[in-house]
Design goal:
This protein has helices at 36-39, 41-44, 53-58, 137-160, 168-186, 192-199, 237-254, 265-270, 276-281, 287-311, 339-347, 374-378, 393-397, 427-436, 448-459, and strands at 7-11, 59-60, 78-79, 90-91, 124-125, 133-134, 215-217, 225-227, 259-263, 320-326, 352-359, 365-370, 382-389, 407-410, 441-445, 464-472, 481-482, 492-493, 498-504. It is of the alpha/beta class and 505 residues long. InterPro entries: Mss51-like_C, Znf_MYND.
């Protein structure tokens, strides 16, 4: 895996499954800001972990999986030490390609059946709820059997609710309450696309008017609308192209397409001098390809930037480096897991890099140790990856497998939230254990308000010394998701968009 070899990646998106249990619904906190971006995280992070071809040869999956494709705690993935050949791909091993169907998506301006943008003369809306669009009466009738129960509930809820000129926070609370009331009315969990009907229906982004006859949508993105009394926001150009990319991503997922991505020499030589957008633009003029490329690269590059802040230069990074990744998830930190080797092993001169992924939602357990790169073998470098699933960080720290870190990372953790894994607040003890390690900490967030609230909560435990105050991350992902937590500020969010690096004083 030399520096001059190009890396090809296939991003294959898979269907998310239904919400399994009504009891797992998130409660609304009328005092604090509601973060439904976390609640709907699985809606946004489409797909199962994308294992590289080389890592795919190292993973032996236990056959007795649950019916929805996930493994039980007793049926964890076992990792074996092997050496993969060159060249290898980041993406799904085609021989083990899953057969799960993709989930449905809702965008108010797309025909809900065929996902085309109907012309004005063709457009047909659901007569009862008035929230779903079709390109023809035929597609409206085709969708009706699966839409009927939720349609009646939504029609009644929207008729009973006054949205006009409420505050943005109240508007969020109203929509969360409608999610819960709708599920009670239909006596089943809402599909993710049905949740999106409530969260992202067509309305004036200023006063929340929803009468289609009074609304005019942006001619480009089609997503943002305003009524006759409100002009489109001046800063809409800032988000318009990203909303188009989001639509392209949805159509890409539904269309079962593949996106080819390369990790070229520029990534290994230029990243310190530019930002993610510039890096991606050097390799492709496709916004869609840039979105997927940046999603893979954002976390390793954020770590590298943090290491430079901590040690002054890469030359000062210790020869044996250990990094803890807290709250790791299979579909983000472990997606195309080879990305960590591609970036870290080829930027740093460390002889040994240990990456410890810890999180209650991880499927993997155990460790793998591989040196698939010929140059790494020549340089006597090795990457060791350890996986601790079904465990919280403060429990891992006090367990027998603990390894002292040089850097602790947590990507988009939402530390400020009062409800987290299993609807409980597990961060208090974890914050204490993070600070006890007395090492630099990297935290990222989707939005500025979230990163500030994360820091505010941590500062209640100890005084912090900032190596990087909360700031925009130059190596943020470029893959957009629809926003909920601050949609009055921006209709889209990005992973790792803001970051901070600190130590306990």
């Amino acid at each position: 895996m030399g520096r001059n070899r190009r890396r090809k990646a296939h991003n294959k998106e898979n269907k998310e499954r239904r919400v399994e249990d009504n009891n797992n619904k998130k409660k609304v906190d009328d005092v604090k800001i509601i973060d439904l971006n976390s609640k709907l995280k699985d809606d946004e992070d489409e797909g199962t972990p994308l294992l590289s071809k080389s890592v795919g040869t190292q993973v032996s999956v236990v056959e007795n999986c649950t019916s929805n494709g996930t493994q039980t705690s007793q049926e964890n993935t076992k990792l074996k030490t092997t050496q993969s050949p060159e060249p290898h791909l980041i993406g799904l091993n085609p021989k083990t390609k899953p057969t799960l169907r993709h989930r449905d998506y809702y965008l108010h301006y797309l025909c809900h059946v065929c996902k085309t943008i109907p012309k004005s003369s063709q457009k047909v809306s659901c007569a009862k709820c008035k929230l779903v669009t079709y390109c023809s009466m035929e597609h409206k009738r085709e969708h009706w059997p699966s839409h009927a129960d939720v349609c009646q509930a939504l029609g009644e809820l929207f008729q009973q609710t006054n949205f006009k000129n409420v505050t943005p926070d109240d508007f969020r609370k109203i929509r969360v309450n409608m999610l819960e009331q709708c599920e009670k009315a239909i006596e089943r969990p809402l599909e993710k696309s049905e949740k999106e009907i409530i969260l992202y229906y067509n309305r004036c982004f200023e006063c929340y008017e929803r009468d289609d006859n009074l609304l005019k949508s942006c001619n480009i993105c089609k997503h943002i609308s305003f009524c006759k009394d409100h002009a489109i926001q001046k800063n809409h150009d800032k988000y318009c192209s990203s909303l188009v990319v989001y639509r392209d991503i949805v159509l890409h997922i539904i269309g079962d397409d593949l996106v080819s991505i390369y990790f070229p020499d520029t990534f290994s030589k230029q990243f310190e001098e530019v930002d993610m957008k510039t890096l991606c633009s050097k390799e492709t003029d496709s916004d869609l390809e840039s979105a997927f490329l940046s999603e893979l690269a954002t976390s390793p590059l954020s770590v590298l930037r943090s290491l430079k802040l901590v040690f002054g230069s890469f030359k000062n990074v210790p020869g044996k480096l250990c990094i803890h990744v807290i709250g790791a998830e299979n579909d983000f930190e472990l997606s195309a897991i080879e990305k960590w080797e591609i970036f870290l092993a080829h930027y740093l001169s460390c002889s040994e890099i240990i990456l410890v992924f810890i999180g209650p939602e991880l499927f993997q357990e155990g460790s793998t140790h591989f040196t698939s790169c010929e140059e790494c073998e020549v340089w006597n470098k090795r990457i060791i990856m350890k996986f601790h699933g079904n465990v919280l960080y403060h429990d891992y720290v006090q367990g027998p497998d603990f390894v002292k870190p040089d850097l602790i990372c947590s990507f988009n953790p939402g530390i400020y939230r009062s409800t987290g894994f299993n609807q409980t607040d597990t961060w208090e003890e974890t914050i204490i254990q993070i600070l006890r390690q007395d090492v630099p900490v990297l935290i990222t967030a989707y939005t500025e308000i979230e990163i500030l609230k994360d820091v505010e909560r941590i500062e209640k435990t100890a005084k912090l010394h900032f190596l990087q105050t909360p700031s925009l991350n130059e190596f943020s992902s470029l893959k957009p998701f629809l926003s909920f937590v601050n949609d009055e500020v921006s209709p889209i969010i990005f992973k790792n968009h803001f970051y901070t690096v600190f130590k306990k004083c």
